[in-house]
Amino acid sequence: MALKKLSHIQTDRHPFLLTIEETARQLNTNIESGLTASQVAEIQKTHPPNELDTGGGTVWYKILGKQISNAMILVLIFAMGLSYGVGDYIEGGVLTAVIVLNVSIGFFQEFKAEKKMDSLRALSSPSASVLRDHKVEVIPSAEVVPGDIVIIKTGDTVPADLRMFETMNLNCDEKSLTGEAEPVEKRSEADIVIPETDTVATSEDDVPVADRLNVAYSTTTVTKGRGRGIAYGTGMQTEVGKIAASSTKKERKQGRSMNFKKHGKAQPFKGLALRIYDGVGKFLGLTEGTPLQRKLSKLAYILFGCAILLAIVVFAVNKFNVTDEVAIYAISTGIAIIPESLIAVLTITMVVGMTVMRKANVVIRDLSALEALGGITNICSDKTGTLTQGAMIVKKVWLPKVGIYTVNNSMDPNNPTQGEVVIGSEVIPHSVTPEEKEDFDHQRSAAALKFDVPAEKFAKDQHKTEKVPGEEPATMNDDLEAFLQPTALCNLATVKEEQAEGENTMKWRTTGEPTEIALQVFAHRFNFGKKGLEAKGWKQIAEYPFDSTIKRMSVVYKTPDDSQWVVYTKGAVERVLDLCISIGTGGKNEPMTDAMKETCLAQMDHFARQGQRVLAVASKVWPGEFVIEKRDGKHGTNVDELRPEVETNLTLVGLVGIYDPPRDETKDAVRECSEAGIKVHMLTGDHPATAEAIAKEIGIIPRNVNILPKDVADSIVFKATDFDKLTNDEIDALTELPLVIARCAPDTKTRMIEALRRRGFYMAMTGDGVNDAPSLSSADVGIAMGLAGSDVAKGAAKIVLTDDKFNSIVSAIREGRRMFDNIQKFVLHLLTSNVGEVILLIAGLGFQDSSGQSVFPLSPLQILWVNMLTSSFPAFGLGREKPSSEIMQRPPHKIKWGVFTPQVMVDMVVYGIIMGTCTILTFVIIIYGLNDGRLGHECNARYNNTSYESSCEPVFRARAAVFAELTWLILISAWEFKSLRRSMFRLDPTSNSRFPFFKDVYENKFLFWSVMIGAVSVFPAVYIPYLNTRVFKHTGITWEWALSFGAIFIFVLGIEAWKAAKRHFRWFEAGSDDDMEHRRTRKLGLRQGFFTMAKSQASSIRSLSRRPTSRSGDSMSVNEKPTQREMKQGSQPVVGDEQV
Q1: In sequence order, what E strands does 729-806 have?
Q2: Which helix (H) or strand (E) holds 239?
Q3: Positive or negative CA dihedral for 408, 411, 413, 417?
Q4: Rounded to the nearest 5°, which phi and psi values hold at 321?
Q5: Which residues, at least 6 apart from 379, have a Cβ–Cβ distance to it below 8 Å?
Q6: Which of 239-248, 390-399, 517-526 has the highest mean pLDDT?
């Protein structure tokens, strides 16, 4: 098919020379509404995707070379060469076919896996916020088209070349494109001058790329501020695309240079040696790939070495008289030790694992994370949007000397018309003393029992809330206006009502961060939104974006009458309070005294104990004119320098409490983590009391910490400032690492990772911001948020959550454990058969015919049949096993062992010995028991039946019986390995069936039919004429079937006896489903997820801010019913032997 000719939308001059209006007109777009859906569809028909064509990606010949260089294949190639060399063309031809088949299967599976990985990476690739049809949409960067209105902010990767038409403190890091070390400040004006002159540029050649200040370039990163621009260049038409088209240079690893002038005379030799090492290691798969892939590659070459060693043993037994017969025997032994299908099975299992996780809203960016998930011992999670819904609603507003505004009956975080706002008298809260703490004993008394109420009735009752004495509907006044101005203007969110697509109804739509949306919605309740104020003449002069290190944001506005410049600030209460010199507005303004600060902090604690996130709002009038200087041709270069001055001598206007209810599924996910031996840590930027209230509600910490030992209780909740003051030794001396860290800064997360690592833990860390990138990259498994996460965070993480939910992390861990278990099962299955075959063949060296040649009990092609066909399909089936019913009730596996745990290694030897012994005995019984030890003459090469003594009939019949027996033992072992410890006849201990064997084995239909078809395939292999004697070197049998069938019962009995011994003597119990020590310590330890029975202040308002959800069955009660597991523990959840 001929390639479709792609056209490109162009302007008559470069967009940096055009005005905003000219650019929009020539690109046929609207900066207020964006492109329409029909316009986008038309452009996409003729325009290439917004991707760089660098010639990278999946290269077929590299994958093919990797398959051929596999140690498994190298052994087969070596065997094939020897077969042709000794004139055995049938065996050589079969080996050739096996090699081609194995390489083909491996090639296509890995090629498919690489393509799958490419598509999954695309899901987590940089996204773009675009304005289309009046709505802001988040789309993959590849879908951006010329004419799109693109919105960028701090942490974003610029998706295309943009002509900026709105900038606010916008700085971009362009060093990857232009080499500019410092971030470049962007502007929107078209008056770009020629460098070192005052002449406005008129030609593209007048100004180099680095000096086009009204353009933001694709792939550069926004380091500060925000802006909007028109996409004019996408894909290979961007500046970086033009560079990519002309350069394919790759960076070398450190120390690989061969430049002796820079690095000394010895460097060429060192560099060459390292390059050769890299090349050979890459070719052999020893230096690239995931840890498991590298470990299996090393195993393959160890086995390759063993194959050579076994060949030498064969030669030595025959006194190095290497005849054709001896060479063939050496080939057989070498083939027997290699699990030819191992890599293919592993690849397919990983592809299936990635697909399952994608359905669970987890995108794997790095395969090493897929292997590591099962070993996670600690999860460090953010609160907002991950543990909670991220749907925030302003619940309380405190205006000093005025009162407390309360929002009632509001369940939609986007609708400012839902619910009502009332004002009550100001109540000065006081600190809660230990004596005044909640009486948990009273809550447990009969008089204080609260019965569950159906959710629907509870919601109706809430709407019938009785009017609190002293409260009245809120109306606009000067004090409230003074609060709403900074609330609306120091805010990047938008709130608007528009007609829903395809409907006649109007719907409220919002864009922005959840916290800012909540504030903007509150302002809209009084028709005091940002758009309305700016329409009246308020003009933004400067913006200081939110900084996680100082936890505040500020803006500077010019009043409509141009008489004043006003500073508005919002942020964490402690950070803003220290900047205030007065409190209150108008006639209620007074100096900020220590007593007044205590009042503010007490009010903050009061809101925070209700689970609300508390922010402070402040303002001041700028003295004189706010002057933005122009230096070196750059506008506003003094803006950043003024920030310390802008954010001082403020007036506190009020406090606002925002409630973000926990997700319904979070509590169960935390409980599941506790059962699985995983501790959950909440690392949040919220106030300690807010963090503590939410942590109690979802069960991370107990309601009453007094039930814990004092040293544990003192360490489970920390402020980041207190944690950061501790030295590493002091942190290591803590009995427990904090489960909640409030006011958390990016550096605090990194210290937490280091502290966990020093204790030997394996952690996952979540993050979404630019500053989270260091902690995401240093964590064992970095998890970025797909919805709220910045592109920088996604790039640093190994996993991206497409729904930002905590329970998705738990689902990923469950799938990681399932995949790890299954890899163990099929590795054990494949290697056990190899051990059994090697034992059989080594013992067979003692079976020598009249000419002194060893007679092998299995021919090379029988071994290939067993390894390639008999073993492979059950191994694929084991890779598809469902998780154990108790997979999340055992501790994480030990990372240091990986797949090859002591149990797997010992099992492999034990089962291999049983298998090898059974097959040897069968061979011995047939040859020596009933055929007087007749081993014939040259029976390794051909079927000889010339005389009674030299007849190969006994050997060929013995081989057929051993072949059938080995096939069935390998197949039945696949069912046995569905569990490494449980009996095959009762795999699920919770089953009520008396004999659940058939139900259990049929549950995995692929494995079941693999075993059944494999078992039946033995009969044609034994009886088809010519194929049996000339290819497999065996013949049809009769009574020998009884030996093969009988060996199955002996083999199963041996495996069951070994499993029973492991269970009885508790061998290798640690980390298994039977880990009683884990269960005992879990019951005695700090049980997260079970501290949820007592009702908190936060839960009293939770139902008001949560949308009603329908559940199957009868109505869910507001207070969740305890699960069966909890009921077994008593009427209340327990921690150790104490009740909460």
Answers
A1: 740-742, 763-767, 781-785, 799-801
A2: helix 239-246
A3: negative
A4: -90, 80
A5: 673, 678, 679, 680, 681, 763, 764, 766, 809
A6: 517-526
Answer yes or no: 382 catalytic: yes
How far is it, in rounded angstroms, from Cα 594 to Cα 826? 69
Q: What is the dihedral of CA 271, 272, 275, 277, to 10 degrees?
A: -110
How high is the pLDDT of residue 55?
52
**Residue 245's pLDDT is what?**
65
What letter represents residue 434's amino acid?
Answer: P
- The phi and psi torsions of 1125 (rounded to 5 degrees) equal -65, -40
Sign of CA dihedral 294, 296, 299, 304: negative
The tokens for 1136 are 């150790």
Q: Is 780 exposed, middle or buried (0-12, 13-18, 19+ CB in 10 A)?
A: buried
Is the confidence at residue 273, as pLDDT, over 70?
yes
C-alpha span between 333 and 327 (Å, rounded): 10
Tokens describing residue 789: 């996460």
Distance CA 515, CA 908 (A): 56
pLDDT tens across 855-903, in order? 889 888 888 788 878 888 999 899 989 888 888 888 888 877 778 889 9
Gap between the Cα atoms of 1056 and 591, Å rounded? 81
Name which of 202-216, 327-341, 608-622, 791-805 the model is least confident about.
Answer: 327-341
Token pair 């079976």 in the structure block, residue: 847
Decide if 923 contacts 855 (C-beta within 8 A): no
* Element of type H or E holding 1005: helix 1005-1016
Give the separation between CA 525 and CA 497, rounded to whole angstroms. 13
Kindly report the backbone phi and psi dihedral angles of residue 630, in degrees, each rounded to the nearest multiple of 5, phi listed first.
Answer: -125, 115
Query: Is residue 351 within 8 Å of 112, Cβ to Cβ?
Result: yes
Write the Ramachandran bin of 241: left for phi over 0, alpha for psi from -120 to 50, otherwise beta: alpha
Residue tagged active-site, from 148, 211, 382, 1000: 382
- The CA distance from 78 to 86, in Å, is 13
Cα distance between the two ends of the chain: 71
d(CA 556, CA 542): 5
Query: pLDDT class for 500, splitting at 50, 70, 90?
Result: low
CA distance 168 to 188: 10
Number of residues in the chain: 1140
> Shortest CA distance to 194 belongs to which of 171, 215, 212, 174?
212
Rounded CA-CA distance 15/689 in Å is: 52
Provide long-range contacts, Cβ within 8 A and 24+ apart, for 1108-1115.
1108/411, 1108/455, 1108/456, 1108/459, 1109/664, 1114/454, 1115/454, 1115/455, 1115/456
CB of 286 within 8 A of CB of 297? yes
Residues contacting 711, CB < 8 A, separation 6+? 735
Contact residues for 1127 (Cβ-Cβ < 8 A; gap 6+): none
For the cut 90, the answer to whether the pLDDT of residue 346 exceeds it is no
Least Cα distance to 660 among 682, 691, 700 occurs for 691
Residue 515 sits at the vertex; the CA angle it makes with 514 and 516, to the nearest 5 degrees, is 95
Candidate from 496-505, 528-537, 809-818 with smallest mean pLDDT: 496-505
Question: Range with the lowest mean pLDDT among 386-400, 655-669, 924-938, 1079-1093?
Answer: 1079-1093
Q: CA 409, 415, 418 angle in degrees (round to 5)?
A: 30
- Distance CA(798)–CA(778), nearest Å, equals 11
Q: What is the DSSP letter of 1033?
A: -
Entry pTM? 0.72
Q: What integer pLDDT is reported at residue 539 of this predicted model? A: 93
Q: What is the pLDDT of residues 762-799, one digit of tens each?
A: 999 988 776 677 888 889 899 988 877 767 777 788 88
Kindly give, in sequence order, each residue whose CB lies less than 8 Å from that of residue 134, ignoring residues fewer than 6 positions away.
Answer: 32, 33, 34, 498
